[in-house]
Amino acid sequence: MKTLMGLSLAGVALLPLSVWAASTEYQDIERGRYISVLGDCAACHTADDSQPFSGGVALETPFGTLLAPNITPDPDTGLGHWRYEDFKAAMTEGIGKGGYHLYPAMPYPSYTLMPEKDIHDLWSYLQTVTPVENDVEANQLPFPFSIRQVMMGWNWLNFDEKTFEPDPEQSDEINRGAYLVESLGHCGTCHTPRNFMGGEGGDKFAGATIEGWYAPNITPNAHVGIGGWSEDELVEYLQTGGNRFDFASGPMADEVHHSSQHWTDDDLYAVARYLLSGAGLESDDWDREPPEPLSEDNAQVRAGSHIYFDRCSGCHTSDGGGEYGIFPQLASNPVVNGDNTSSLIRVVLAGSRPVATDAKPTAPAMPSFAWNLNDEEIASVLTFVRNSWGNAAAAVSPGDVADMREALAGE
């Protein structure tokens, strides 16, 4: 059967090869745009929303400050002179153009799991963004950390270059969630404890401190992790910025704003099912019994109860139930039970306005109590909350409150 290019064959339109090529290229670019969202590239590389990916965001590390570089196609200050091979090496090996070593604030230890197709499509998309001339001196670290060659030793001890391999014993959905969590979403970068060199160490997803906030435990432990959350509640948090337990603040607010609120439902549920399944975790990473709550006769608990009913119950209610969508419940709340209290102390001292999202554009707010509660009072009210209504956790130290007050004064 003879046909002419552009006519139909058995009811299927035959378009010129150039049109098919253009369509395929567009699909790759659009797919790359979504990969940039999954990878949360904008949170680090966009300081000014009117100039996407032009860099300049300050990344605070235990070793000093780094500035995220310009990754637009600008030839002088961005990636304009990079080849795809240079980009791939940066993503999978932590090696920039010319052979210099990247710091793991750029999460190449997670991105190294990306397959070739995802890296290629991300690169294709980045070539289409508007070039911006913005010269960023990324390395702001003090000596000796400013010497990039030290990363050779760091990589030898902390970096494993490999591609993501699906677990044949898990469903396609769980494997998709694993890829998103372990690689593109790089959740462990914030939620897994770090060793003294800044590499991931300790129990996976057990929580870690980042930029003065505590990225909480995201294992299936019901007391301190997300094991008491339903799949819908976890998706709600990632998509809207909050659920009945918590609202996204600090670095997590940036992640929700730039990234997870724009994910597809399928990808959000894949992540939820992977995290709640405990797949990829050792049982002792999260399967531990909760402690007994402190007695009502404890001095801090008694003092804190009076402060709570005077200052906090109006919003969070007398039984810690909160008001859905406005004030999170404190009862049986894993964030409240967490081993690290820095975020709790920070929010009471400084207040907080969580992220506003497309789904919930009016974000609730928590006022600051630094002006009318002293260190002992804040420690007492938090100790009361952490040992009431199904919660059980160690007492909060006034010294920890004082340290956070001093840290906030320096910001």
From TrEMBL:
Keywords: Cell membrane, Electron transport, Heme, Iron, Membrane, Metal-binding, Repeat, Signal, Transport
Gene3D superfamilies according to UniProt: Cytochrome c-like domain
Residues that span the membrane, as ranges: none
Keyword Metal-binding carried by entry: yes
Top-rank taxon: Bacteria
Family annotation (Pfam families): Cytochrom_C (PF00034)
Signal peptide boundaries: 1-21
Cellular compartment(s): Cell membrane
Predominant cellular place of this UniProt entry's protein: membrane
Domain Cytochrome c: 27-130, 172-279, 299-389
Protein's UniProt keywords contain Repressor: no
PANTHER family: ALCOHOL DEHYDROGENASE CYTOCHROME C SUBUNIT (PTHR35008:SF8), BLL4482 PROTEIN-RELATED (PTHR35008)
This protein's name: Cytochrome c
Species this chain originates from: Halomonas colorata
